[in-house]
Amino acid sequence: MGQDSNVWSDAQRFDPERFLEVGIDYKGRDFELIPFGAGRRMCPGLPLADRMLHLMLGSLIYKFDWKTKEGTMDMSDKFGFTLQKKLPLMAIPVEL
Ligand code: HEM
Asked: Which residues does the annotation say bind heme (predicted)?
């Protein structure tokens, strides 16, 4: 669904900014984007994640530089109900 070209233009391109323009919601009402699932069994942690994620991610980026063992990042994915990375990401923090 995340790469369906009927839904997303240039669907294969990594383009997080696209979400700034589309005006769809990620809280289970718009099925084009359901990172927390939808319906009665959707993620009950959504309100917590919604508040904390920016803070956690911002702190990690602010406090560390990040690198990978190989120096590059493999963005291939594997097919499934949700989009997952083919190879797990091993991010190594480097103290600033
Ligand atoms: C970015 C953060 C998170 C994402 C993307 C996420 C995503 C998801 C997804 C996709 C599901 C399955 C929903 C479905 O079956 O329709 C789920 C279930 C669940 N999540 Fe999260 N989650 C996040 C954070 C959290 C947090 C912070 C908590 C708890 C503090 C949490 C607790 C749960 C629980 C208990 C379920 C099982 C719900 C059930 O089966 O009824 N999640 N989550």
From this structure: 43
